[in-house]
Design goal:
This protein is of the alpha/beta class. It has helices spanning 57-64, 87-93, 104-107, 114-125, 130-143, 160-172, 190-207, 218-221, 242-247, 252-260; strands at 7-17, 30-41, 46-50, 72-77, 80-81, 97-100, 178-182, 211-215, 227-232, 235-241, 308-311, 314-316. The strands form 2 sheets. An 8-stranded mixed β-sheet has the order 6-7-8-3-9-10-12-11, with helices on both faces. A 4-stranded antiparallel β-sheet has the order 2-1-4-5, covered by helices on one side. Strand 7 (178-182), helix 7 (190-207) and strand 8 form a beta-alpha-beta unit.
């Protein structure tokens, strides 16, 4: 018997704007943040979602947690359709999936002690006694690498790395099945990033967590993620195991991201990703990357490439990977 994925999204599309007047005329353009995305997150894995700013990574994470309205498509959580779930049913389901935000200071209530910040999810979603909640909070602080005495302090008393540990502890305290971490390293220096990655790995093992880990830094996630999904302008253009993406990137955009990443190897030449990201108000026809792609062919500007299996867990949406269409 196979286990259903933690998350399965099919045809997921999210659009913003598009307001209409009383006469039915469109008064604002439509921004397609996500376009027809099919993606799964398997139980116990870390799926990293990477790409440049504005590609839709954060919108994808929020949509999977039903924190952003979905225009079209379907989302199943552990086999249960949650696409249209509302009210008490959605609130009850949310104890099983949590989110960690990019800015730990903005996501923590400055007027609440750390104890109350961590205790709040337990008070809302469980009927545990005050004594049991206190024990859970203090144990969670310790698991997050923080001293138990920190429970009586306020967020402004902590460094950025410590605040991020608190934010991670708050997300993990309910022992959720699924956590979306939205750029949790971007506000930290390199040494703190490594410490936080170790914390994520430790909590994953200790509490059997599953992560969707959002990052703009492809190089940073290679040693941490099980699989990597590469996004460009609202679409997933390549997905595969971290090993497959690292050793045999198939999409020109993925190769450009790897080439542009800083490297400690002085022998490796780094490049830059040229051109500007097109506006999501008017994305290019065909392959959305063709306006910046050094390998673009005529077909790339007219026909959208479909996701094609390369073998193993590896797939890419590129005409250089897919068989070329024949003229009729």
């Amino acid at each position: 018997m196979t286990t259903a994925p933690i998350i399965r999204a099919e045809g997921l599309t999210v659009e913003f704007g598009g307001r209409r007047s009383l006469l039915g005329r469109q008064t604002a353009p439509v921004v397609q943040a996500l376009s027809n995305i099919d993606i799964t997150v398997e139980t116990g894995e870390t799926l990293a979602v990477v790409g440049e700013s504005g590609c839709g990574k954060s919108t994808l994470g929020r949509a999977l947690l039903r924190s952003t309205p979905i225009t079209r498509g379907r989302i199943a959580f552990k086999g249960q359709d949650i696409t249209t779930m509302e009210g008490e049913a959605l609130r009850s389901a949310r104890r099983h999936f949590q989110m960690i935000f990019q800015d730990p200071y903005a996501s923590l209530n400055p007027k609440m002690k750390i104890f109350d910040t961590l205790a709040e999810p337990l008070r809302v979603h469980t009927d545990e006694s005050s004594a049991a909640i206190r024990t859970r909070v203090l144990d969670m602080l310790e698991a997050a690498g923080l001293d138990r005495s920190f429970a009586e302090r306020y967020p402004h008393e902590f460094s950025g790395g410590q605040r991020q540990r608190v934010a991670i502890a708050r997300a993990a305290i309910l022992r959720p099945d699924f956590i979306v971490a939205d750029e949790p390293l971007s506000a930290l220096d390199v040494s703190l990033q490594l410490q936080i990655l170790k914390l994520f790995a430790s909590l994953k093992q200790q509490f059997s967590l599953t992560y969707l880990f959002i990052s703009h830094d492809l190089a940073r996630v290679f040693g941490f993620a099980d699989r990597i999904a590469v996004m460009y302008l609202g679409k997933v253009v390549e997905i595969g195991s971290a090993r497959e993406i690292y050793h045999a990137p198939a999409h020109p955009y993925t190769r450009a991201l790897i080439a542009a990443a800083p490297s400690p190897d002085p022998e490796r030449k780094t490049g830059t990703l040229g051109g500007e990201i097109p506006s999501p108000l008017n994305p290019p026809k065909g392959c959305r990357f063709h306006t910046r792609c050094p390998m673009a062919m005529d077909v790339c500007s007219t026909l959208e490439p479909q996701m094609t299996s390369i073998g193993g867990q590896h797939s890419a949406a590129c005409h250089w990977v897919a068989p070329q269409p024949t003229a009729v």
